[in-house]
Amino acid sequence: MEITNQGKTSIGMEANLAALLSYLLGFITGIVFYVLEKENKFVRFNAMQSIVVFAFLFVLNIVLNLLPIIGWILSAAIGVLAIILWVVLMIKAYQGEYFKLPIAGDIAEKNS
Question: Which residues contact 62 (CB under 8 A, 6 or more apart)?
Fold first, then answer.
């Protein structure tokens, strides 16, 4: 995808750092940066993508943990994949790359 130098944000941070931080604590920091950042589309995109992805994974984890054995195994496997995804998203955001995930990226793009 596109890599750009986004400059400063309305909250006074470099855009790539703010985008990385929007993933740091999952949907919680996503919400914080989405609410605080009013102008920078790159930060707002990453914050919204963080909200969508990690809120979905949070709910999925709760549901799977209600299912004995199979749910627990799936939850553990998805947890490992979620950590890998989390690291990739933070790296891509810090590099200034618009890394758009399927479905979540579309939602983020419409709402950024």
Answer: none
